[in-house]
Amino acid sequence: MGSVTVSNKKSQTTSLNNYNNLATAPVANKTESVTMNNYCNGWIGGEGASAMTSAPNLKPKIVYGTAGYILEDVPHFTDYISDLPTYPNPLQDNPAYSVVKQYFVHVDDSVPQKVVVHKDSERGVHFRRAGPRQKVYFESDEVKAAIVTCGGLCPGLNTVIRELVCGLHHMYGVKRVLGIEGGYRGFYARNTINLTPKSVNDIHKRGGTVLGTSRGGHDTNKIVDSIQDRGINQVYIIGGDGTQRGAAAIFEEVRRRGLKVAVVGIPKTIDNDIPVIDKSFGFDTAVEEAQRAINAAHVEAESVENGIGVVKLMGRYSGFIAMYATLASRDVDCCLIPESPFYLEGPGGLFEYIEKRLKENGHMVIVIAEGAGQELMSEKMQTMNKQDASGNKLLQDVGLWISQEIKDHFAREKTMAITLKYIDPTYMIRAIPSNASDNVYCTLLAQSAVHGAMAGYTGYTSGLVNGRQTYIPFYRINENRNHVVITDRMWARLLSSTNQPSFLGDKCHNEDDIEEEEPLNQLLDGDLSDDTLKVKKEISSI
Ligand SMILES: Nc1ncnc2c1ncn2[C@@H]1O[C@H](COP(=O)(O)OP(=O)(O)OP(=O)(O)O)[C@@H](O)[C@H]1O
Ligand SMILES: O=P(O)(O)OC[C@H]1O[C@](O)(CO)[C@@H](O)[C@@H]1O
Ligand SMILES: [Mg+2]
After folding, report:
1. Residue among 79, 271, 273, 438 flagged as catalytic
2. Is the minimum distance from the CB of 61 to ligand 2 under 6 angstroms?
3. Predicted complex ipTM exceeds 0.90
4. Is the pTM of this model over 0.90?
5. CB 134 within 8 A of CB 186
6. What is the CATH class of 283-383+394-432?
7. Partner residues linked to 73 by β-bridges
8. Tens of pLDDT along 347-395?
9. DSSP secondary structure string, 444-473?
10. Which atom of ligand 2 is nearest to the CA of 392?
């Protein structure tokens, strides 16, 4: 990292004016860095960089280094507030931490987004490594933190709340932590509750969120007014894609008002559809819990002649839970997800495959993600086109629909008598407490979030990238959605495990529809041939 400079001397940097210049930015063989930012006039960036107060200009903070190194950095108080005092990190006097060699993260540490490289590959995009810094921008007594949970439930929410409270308290001596009840609208429509290590001690053993949650109700101005009125200066916002977009809006307003308030996102989504990060907390728990439903479906199916078990799992736009639960189980004969169009009738269709499997095995199990086959249903049933309070499309029950279609088909064709059992465990899966590995993951996410806020970073989501905790700028989290890539190896592994048809027959959509996304994270095990091109494409499309 030695060659990458985030300089605090203006003369050593070159400022570029917009994202699209990325494609032409000179990057290689330079000792000084090329810094592209428009956060504020004269902003140079980086921890402790000198800064001047000015109207914020909401552009990404990108730093170039040698050999195609790109750091997509996160905002810092010093980008828009001048002359802030700093303090030694209290962790240096904490016996648990002070003995750890190199406990503080080096200012230049960053984590690559892509770890599979070729010998001539450019170094590509990096994110700032999370962790404690030597200097902090808050005194312990000064901090008044708030925590809010928004969107749908997910295993691990309570663990994150607990670890935020305990992390703030035990690591940084922060005594004032408020819980915002009932999601975003709780900022302006509800009272707050005091959270202490004692009051949150056992909550990780419970499902749901002790703070409550909601959809809709995001009013940026009212929320920031409430933050200001209550004297809150660190806000921890736990939620999915919608929530993180809301967090970005709050951050922008906070910065517009010039407030020293750290706005920190912690990504939550049982669907695992948040981009950039390896996976979201609660996902492992969901996959594990889904096994119980799949087992039950299998037991039912194999106990009768021509038994079919259908299990619906969550996944509104992304079929990760269905895919991983299928791969984990090995009892599943067919997995249907939103990303992989399928059809029912005719050669290569689902009915033909079901008949074949029943003849071979006498029973079968189908796992279907809730967002799969919505177009097929819409053809036959009138689409409701309704939305929830956050604007998410309300889906029809694909599990019920497909079960009925299968029953009708065999009743009509009279080829064989079947017995079908449909299991919908979706809300049972979502409501359980997180498992051991998710609990560890939640702890790391929460502690990383706290370290970043104390160090003056803001406007970021705390997330795992290639197994390392990082700070990711909101715009990267909010620009798209993570999908299963059906042209990627992981889906191929699933197809070879279930032996199901790929449904890529005549009736399938053309290839352009299918190959629109490339995987970006390790979970997908993608093999990107030219990451830099992709980064350029993504950044220029913002
Ligand atoms: N574009 C947006 N700008 C501001 N706020 C938003 C935006 N989208 C959603 N929100 C707010 O974020 C909160 C949560 O959104 P949503 O209900 O979509 O859940 P989510 O965070 O996406 O979680 P999940 O989908 O995993 O359940 C809601 O209060 C909603 O009003
Ligand atoms: O019934 P609710 O609370 O709107 O949640 C349902 C949705 O929430 C999710 O679990 C995402 O949090 C989706 O998989 C699902 O479609
Ligand atoms: Mg969402």
Report:
1. 271
2. no
3. yes
4. no
5. no
6. alpha beta
7. 61
8. 999 999 999 999 999 999 999 999 999 888 866 564 557 889 999 888 8
9. HHHHHHHHHHHTTB-SEEEEEETTEEEEEE
10. 4
